[in-house]
Specification:
Distance between the termini: 49 Å
Order of helices and strands: EEEEHEHEHHHHH
Number of strands: 6
Strand order of the largest sheet: 1-4-3-2-5-6
Structural class: alpha/beta
CATH class: Alpha Beta
Largest sheet: 6 strands, mixed
CATH superfamily: Ribonuclease H-like superfamily/Ribonuclease H
Radius of gyration: 16 Å
């Protein structure tokens, strides 16, 4: 596995597959307060591209073009947060989407542990190191531990999607999952507009 760090944007000549794993790192977990610092990308080939965005301008035309390309399936874990911060700071909408956390909740109904670490441990036999989860992602220079942590968040998503696709099919919930994935941009918009904790469909 390899990691490539890019400053500001990805080079225009880099090509990715039609299934693109994506994750983000921010200064916190509130979309309206905590700025986007890093976008991680992988085609599932063992290479992770880390894009350290310019927080003064968020001028990254190649990255924005890639993220908004509807010809590729975007793979996330907890897409609701990532697509919200991408929309707020980069001004683009991601789609179509596959969210492994949502898929986990649909088929791993025997547990309430749906974090990436737990899912990778059970489905792939991979133990992720989460020590850098609370880290200063706004630092101008990311250390090796931060880069490895960020890369791990995308390097295993392709394999997870393959496993979840099998389980969704087995449980007869593939169509339901797709409808949930399609709704995620709306859920993200509600978060950005001020309804992060509300269920608008409850009585």
């Amino acid at each position: 596995m390899s990691i490539t760090l890019h400053k500001g944007d990805i080079p225009a000549d880099i090509t990715f597959s039609d299934r693109l794993a994506i994750d983000t790192e921010t200064m916190g977990l509130r979309c309206g307060r905590d700025p986007l610092c890093l976008v991680q990308l992988s085609s599932g080939d063992g290479t992770a591209h880390l894009v350290q965005v310019d927080r003064n301008t968020y001028d990254a035309p190649n990255l924005k073009k890639l993220l908004s390309d509807t010809g590729s399936l975007k793979l996330f874990h907890f897409a609701r947060f990532d697509i919200a911060v991408i929309k707020k700071y980069l001004g683009v909408e991601c789609g179509p989407i596959f969210c492994t956390r949502t898929a986990s909740k649909l088929v791993r109904t025997y547990t309430d542990r749906h974090g990436l670490r737990e899912v990778c441990r059970e489905l792939l036999g991979v133990e992720l190191n989460k020590q850098q989860q609370s880290s200063d992602w706004g630092s101008p220079e990311l250390n090796e531990a931060q880069q490895q942590y960020a890369a791990n968040d995308v390097l295993y998503l392709h394999r997870l999607v393959e496993e979840f696709e099998k389980r969704l099919e087995r449980e007869g919930r593939t169509d339901l999952a797709r409808k949930c994935f399609d709704f995620l941009p709306v859920r993200a918009d509600l978060d950005l507009e001020g309804w992060p904790d509300s269920d608008l469909f409850e009585h």
